[in-house]
Amino acid sequence: MKTLLIFCAALTASAAVAQEGMSQHEHGTQMESVPVAPVDSYPAQRGETKNLEHAPDSPDHVMDHDRPLTMVKIDQLEAREENGGALKGDLWYGGDRNKLWLKSEWERNDGDTEKAELQALYSRAIAPYWDLQMGVRHDFEAESDSRNWGVIGFNGLAPYFFEVDSALFIGEDGDTALRLEAEYELLFTQQWILTPEVEADFFGQNDRETGTGSGLSNVELGLRLRYEFTPQFAPYFGVHYEKKYGNAADFARDEGESASETTWVIGLRTWF
Amino acid sequence: MKKRYGPQFELPQLSRRQFVTGMAAGAALLGMPAGLAASTPRAGAAPQTLRGNQFDLNIGYLPVNYTGRERTAVAVNGSVPGPVLRWKEGQTVTLNVTNHLAHDTSIHWHGIILPSNMDGVPGLSFNGIKPGETFTYQFQVNQSGTYWYHSHSDFQEQQGLYGSIVIDPADADPVAYDRDYIVLLSDWSDESPHDIYAKLKKEGHYYNRRRRTAGDLWREIKAKGVAATWRDREMWNEMRMSDRDISDVTGYTYTFLMNGQSPDANWTALFRKGEKVRLRFINSSAMSIFDIRIPGLKLTVVAADGQNIEPVTVDEFRIGVAETYDVIVEPDGDSAYTLFAQTIDRSGFARGTLTSEPGLRADVPPMDYAPVLTHRDMGMGHGSMQGMSGMGGMGGMAGMAGMDHSQHDMGGMDHSQHDMGGMDHSQHDMGGMDHSQHDMGGMDHSQHDMGGMDHSQHDMGGMDHSQHDMGGSAQGYSMHGGRPELGGMQGVWFTNNLGRAGHGSNSPIVHLPSEYGYGVDMRSSMPMNGLHDPGIGLRDHQERYGRRVLTYADIRNLTPTIDRREPTRELQLHLTGNMERYMWSMDGIKFSDAEPLMLKYGERIRVTLVNDTMMTHPIHLHGMWSELETGDAEYIPRKHTIIVQPGSKVSYLVTADALGRWAYHCHLLYHMPGMFREVRVV
Q1: How far apart are CA A245 and CA B135, in angstroms?
Q2: Contact B515, B574 (CB under 8 A)
Q3: What's the pLDDT at B31?
Q4: Tens of pLDDT along B360-370?
Q5: Residue of chain B whose Cα is closest to the Cα of A50
């Protein structure tokens, strides 16, 4: 577990480096936005340029493909043991650089909704493999009251093809939380794909209501084997493990729940 | 009868083609067995041949069925490909093009030298053709050979709007032949091109069905051991790149067509024993580069991109998207031969038959091994590491990986430039490079200076200063696209110590600051000259199969070079992209953000394209010839589309003898939105 944490820390570090990359990046963008004399100001003064008159001056008309796209991605839509279930998905809308990005997570255990959150983020490409994401998160009322957080994080692809999502949350009341997620895809064939996945949550404070403790609060590990009928339609099965640490574990024990849990899952991964 | 679009002797079975498996999977998704919803594929109508000076072309929708599914294509005069246009050199042709679509359309006459307002590029040449409108093209035909036409609007090229042009020479044809056939290759998908593009944007490897698997890794470990395998994988993993990424769109969705017929429909052409047959190969694909051979026959290439060349006999040649090659074959027996066109990634093939007797057919050969990219294809030098050979055990690999790390890690770009300087020293032993290590060092300095300049736009003096610094390596350059007052600060222009015409570039490789943005995932530090390279997947065909493969270095024009002037300027332009985001650009700048490249009317320049990606890009300049520098100044071949190998560079000369606004772009359809520039000759 320790190595895992070190690994997570490394991922955050790489994300931080991505932020540094921004300063360099600005050189690039400034190049792109060099003020240009409007093309009209270029006089077709000589007779030779007559055939320019025929051409409308709207280069964007040439290849009008650069339209914003919408992607809906359901990473996990799954049933878990003991009347549990989970939904984890993203929706984004936008172009190459700027996107509006929604993330949602919903978890159910023993027939009760344990977690339901929605993040609305502005996502900006800042490096070849990294997006900077900022916005708000809303936790819907479930076992605890609803609450809002500010979010800043990095989403992208780390070396060795680890898909990383990291975010720092700051609550209305000054609470803090850090979430690190990493995912890897191991192809057995082009269609059978194993996805190990890890999520670690850290908090700046104890909160008995939400069952979270200061420091490392809980870790989730997932191992899902999917079969891609098409890249967009892939049912899977796997195992999900969750463990609480420190005060969070104590809170759970006080409630008469166990600090760790393993469950089989079966579900669907899809996007469009 | 001169042309014959084959009777289809046998109706195809859907399951026989491995590259329609995507359709089968799609059917599975919908919960029905493949084929249940499908009807029987049918061969499309053969294109007519139209001759004369006056042509009426009607663009409309056409129901087609290549795979067992009914789809709608965009066709000219009711066929895909559209009619063959047969012109005569020296005549003036008039073409009335009527749009029966619900959307704008256009026709671009690919490779034809004509006034810019007749070139058919909406936004540059004209406004496009609105629904219901007729646009009349009229121009004099001043060349001969094999060309083609296609839509320059939206993604209509993928939907079937293309056809061939054959121009008969005014004088006697230097090529002797008894009959000729057009062999037009294209790629068809049952998916809409917009869907294909969106899928690529969302998941760049969507159509790649050869991604590395655990099994590949295991085989490599068994063959080379853990340590060597780790070293090989390290760089790719650090860079987050795939060595299996050959084609963006593959046989997973494409059915490859020869003259509009699927492989099973088997387009067939007839010959009589002893005849010389001229085959006019045209690659009208949206995204597919083909390797062509005819087992049992030698191919004598007599023309490239419509222009006659000194005949060169080969066994196999690569044809990039939009290129054309004319080939003479002399079948001596009463037998059949397979025209075999496999895609560069070996995900499928187009196929036809050349036979002395209807009904006769030859075996269809298996496809060759699928290529895997090497460090060479990243422009990291190492010419010795060709083909499939592994990279394990190479001295200095650790250093290479280190360099890459610094260059490609998204962070600390400031440091990366220093590191590049360091790299030069560490790789001092790499021979065969065009550039001295000092040039590279000079480049690093210039980047710093240019970075400084960027901070304040009007600090032009600062830039001049940087040029003086560069003078230390006697390689001054400017970043003006010809006219500073237009803000034409794109591209790198060299004016000193240009190599002699025909012999390519001497200039150092300069990566502009704009290449260090989020849209660029790789920069070639030491691009090889792509001339002698047959290309990925073909490099070992001579040794392996004894096949001679055509390279650009083999091409010499049949007649002497017309414009004997030396170039006065050299433009270095980098082809850039980000596979993960599926963004394409030149010098890291997308078309929508780019200013025109300004050329002075009458000037002769050199263009050096540096491929900073791991894809093979066919680059097409409208309106003017791209005179490929193959090492012989006397017989420079004239092309309209030039392949730039991954991680390589290639140079050609351009005489700016055509006024107006011209398109200049990668001819891979889904690269076009970004990897595109306007060239303006004033």
Answers
A1: 73
A2: yes
A3: 39
A4: 999 999 999 99
A5: B660
Average pLDDT value for chain B: 81
CATH class of this structure's domain B397-681? mainly beta
CB–CB of A55 and B412 under 8 A?
A: no
Which residues from A are below 8 Å from B414, CB to CB? Answer: 23-24
| Window 380-409 of B, Cβ < 8 Å to A | 408-409
Please give the pLDDT value at position B487: 40
pTM of the model as a whole: 0.82
Interchain CB distance below 8 Å, B411 and A48: no
Those residues with Cβ within 8 angstroms of residue A242's Cβ, 6 or more apart along the chain or in another chain: A218, A219, A220, A221, A260, A261, A262
Q: Do B678 and B124 meet the contact criterion of CB atoms below 8 Å apart? A: yes
Partners of A109 in the β-ladder: A112
Best A39, A45, A49, A65 residue to mutate vs chain B (most B CBs within 10 Å): A65
Model ipTM value: 0.80
Cβ contact, residue pair A187, B128, below 8 Å: no
At the top level of CATH, the class of B14-175 is: mainly beta
- Where are the CATH 2.60.40.420 domain residues in chain B? 14-175, 397-681
Contact B592 A60 (CB under 8 A): yes
Stretch 42-81 of chain B: residues touching chain A, C-beta under 8 Å: none
* Contact yes or no for B154 and A129 at CB 8 A: no
| Domains, in order of start, for chain A | 69-271 (2.40.160.40)
Report the percent of chain B where pLDDT is more than 90: 68
Q: What DSSP character marks residue A8?
A: H
What band does A160 get if pLDDT is binned at 50, 70 and 90? very high
- What are the chain A neighbours of B581 within 8 Å (beta carbons)? 96, 125, 128
Q: Which of B410, B454, B595 to mutate to test the interface with A (most CBs of A within 10 A)?
A: B410
User: What residues of B are in contact with residue A58 (Cβ under 8 Å)?
Assistant: 123
Nearest to B661 among A24, A36, A52 (CB): A52
Report pLDDT digits (tens) over A189-219.
999 999 999 999 999 999 988 889 999 999 9
**pLDDT in the model for residue B438:** 32
Task: Give the closest of A35, A49, A56 to B682, CB-based.
Answer: A49
pLDDT (tens digit, 9 = 90+) per residue, B462-497? 233 333 333 333 345 555 444 444 344 567 888 888
pLDDT greater than 70 at residue B58: yes
Question: Which pLDDT belongs to residue B267?
Answer: 96
| Structure-block tokens of residue A63 | 């290849």
| Residue A143 neighbours by CB distance under 10 Å | 13
Residue B409 above 70 pLDDT? no
* B454 shares contact with chain A (CB less than 8 Å): yes
Instruction: Write the CB contacts of B86 (distance below 8 Å, at least 6 apart in sequence).
Output: B49, B50, B51, B165, B166, B167, B168
pLDDT one-digit tens code per residue, B179-224: 999 999 999 999 999 999 999 999 999 999 999 999 999 999 999 9
According to DSSP, the residues that pair with A152 across neighbouring strands are A134, A168
A81 Cα to chain B: minimum distance (Å)? 27
Token pair of B539 as six digits: 């490099």
CB contact under 8 A, B237 and A161: yes
Q: Does B245 touch chain A (CB under 8 A)?
A: no
CB contact under 8 A, B590 and A96: yes
**B568-578 tens-digit pLDDT:** 999 999 999 99
B189's enclosing H/E stretch is strand B179-189
Higher pLDDT, B490 or B79: B79
A17: part of which helix (H) or strand (E)? Answer: helix A2-32
Q: How far apart are CA B649 and CA B663, in angstroms?
A: 21
Closest CA to A108 of A270, A267, A272, A256: A267
How far, rounded to the nearest angstrom, does the alpha carbon of residue B517 sit from its chain's CA centroid? 24
